[in-house]
Design goal:
tRNA-uridine aminocarboxypropyltransferase; alpha/beta; Alpha/beta knot; 7 helices; single chain; 6 strands
Length: 196
């Protein structure tokens, strides 16, 4: 028998995070392209980001037939948040900058690279990277390096970089609650043994 779940945040009903999810506006539009293997992941941070930002959308797939349409939003300049040889550091908007459509692949590094391979239009976008990223709060995952962030954390840091006058920290409240809940479910001793 499966547990009842919230259809919005996809968490078990008794662990619903909806009360913690904000509705934050941003000048930047965020398009999250999620690999299908991430949809049912217990820590689906991309979904939390899409739910918490009024100017964001989440699309799931491997090949995105409508990508050209999504990238051609009037008034926005699309760029891909992903490392690469010609990637440039994100910086705050200046007065005359066009707003950014920040495209964020969601999945393991291997799956994200696969999304780029299967969607040449995506791979051809100008790339941007984060600088001075804070340490990850994702205490349940063994990161490939100290600069590795969850999708949600990367989006929050990118928005703070682009729009330093605004605060997007509210997006981290459901994330922190999710992590704390997972640690509580496994028990402190198991957490320390496997993740410290």
């Amino acid at each position: 028998m499966s547990r009842a779940r919230c259809e919005r945040c996809l968490r078990p009903s008794d662990h619903c995070l909806c009360a913690l999810i904000p509705a934050l506006g941003s000048r930047t539009r965020v398009l999250i392209l999620q690999h299908p293997s991430e949809v049912n992941h217990a820590l689906n941070t991309a979904r939390l980001a899409a739910l918490g930002l009024t100017n964001a959308e989440l699309q799931v797939g491997e090949v995105f037939e409508d990508l050209a349409l999504w990238l051609s939003r009037p008034g926005y300049r699309a760029c891909l948040l992903f490392p690469g040889e010609e990637a440039v550091a994100l910086k705050a908007y200046s007065a005359d900058d066009v707003s950014v459509l920040l495209v964020v692949p969601d999945g393991t590094w291997r799956k994200a690279r696969k999304l780029l391979h299967l969607n040449p239009l995506l791979a051809a976008l100008p790339r941007v990277v984060l600088t001075n990223a804070p340490a990850s709060r994702y205490r349940l995952r063994k990161a490939p390096g100290p600069e590795a962030l969850s999708t949600l954390e990367a989006i929050v840091h990118a928005l703070h970089t682009l729009e330093p006058e605004a605060s997007f920290n509210g997006l981290l409240r459901p994330f922190d609650a999710l992590i704390d809940g997972q640690i509580a479910a496994m028990g402190e001793e198991t957490f320390r043994r496997n993740h410290s």
